[in-house]
Backbone:
């Protein structure tokens, strides 16, 4: 288990039953980066990965 899995598991346990929009998620990610600019690159990589998840491999 990676250290970050603990945070993911907490997210699932606390908010796993909720439904949110990607617009809401994007706003929370922007807010997080504004408060923690040192995490800009990994957050941007995650956002890009999520945005392209369903793209066909060309």
Residues:
């Amino acid at each position: 288990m990676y250290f970050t899995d603990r945070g993911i598991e907490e997210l699932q346990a606390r908010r796993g039953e909720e439904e949110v929009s990607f617009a809401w998620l994007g706003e929370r990610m922007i807010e997080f980066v504004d408060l923690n600019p040192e995490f800009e690159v990994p957050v941007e990589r995650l956002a890009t990965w999520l945005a392209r998840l369903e793209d066909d491999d060309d």
Remarks:
- The mean pLDDT is 90.
